[in-house]
């Protein structure tokens, strides 16, 4: 397969870095140019060292800049998403950007688009979802499906884990700081999927035109509650702590308090609302097996990652927390 130009929005992020590596390493692939826009070019400096990868400083939310990025692309992957923010910020990222991207593709004559959404998105009325995150994700899917002339594939992953994730490693780091983990949403269900499996799924969708028009559910082989995942993070990192599930009212208080702290919060009220919907594969759409992939179990990936010790950033944050 040859794509002269592949545009990856969100290519400097967690999933984007894995996708670029997989794309460049795919046997028999004539990778062409991989274009990665970023508001801060320095974030993609490692990727920019790869042959045929170009990182450009650009704001994808600016329609004129987006038009320039899309020009000449054979395919576009949209990975841009946020987990925290106001209703307006979710709307801008998950709805307005897809609208503008669809319009830019139409103007440039670009048909192929692979869009990453999320498990838990309602199939019907977006208003039926309990959170701004899920409602905006659902509307983003809708505007892309309504756009004419797009060869669209939608991927819906569960929570994504890996060596650089901000989920399992975060809970491991927290358990190095506290004697007890008081946890809101402890009974929420997830089906965690390895970032490398999501990246390979994206590659397969780009390679296989039979995936056009499909929604692919990206989930791992096992379902866990949030409480179980937190316990495993402590166990694998050597910081086993009791996990104290909070009642609903206390969970809302905890989430509200965390949402007021500076920086990106561990949990917000909107996150808590999202967790009311099981973040697991429904079986109503093809899964990773339909792409020829056997997803890795979290127990096969994360124990050696956490046993090897935290990254320098993890250690810095842990020391700062203790101080």
UniProtKB/TrEMBL annotation:
<protein>
    <submittedName>
        <fullName>NADH dehydrogenase</fullName>
        <ecNumber>1.6.99.3</ecNumber>
    </submittedName>
</protein>
<dbReference type="GO" id="GO:0016491">
    <property type="term" value="F:oxidoreductase activity"/>
</dbReference>
<keyword id="KW-0560">Oxidoreductase</keyword>
<dbReference type="InterPro" id="IPR036291">
    <property type="entry name" value="NAD(P)-bd_dom_sf"/>
</dbReference>
<feature type="domain" description="NAD-dependent epimerase/dehydratase">
    <location>
        <begin position="7"/>
        <end position="210"/>
    </location>
</feature>
<dbReference type="Pfam" id="PF01370">
    <property type="entry name" value="Epimerase"/>
</dbReference>
<dbReference type="GO" id="GO:0044877">
    <property type="term" value="F:protein-containing complex binding"/>
</dbReference>
<dbReference type="InterPro" id="IPR001509">
    <property type="entry name" value="Epimerase_deHydtase"/>
</dbReference>
<dbReference type="InterPro" id="IPR051207">
    <property type="entry name" value="ComplexI_NDUFA9_subunit"/>
</dbReference>
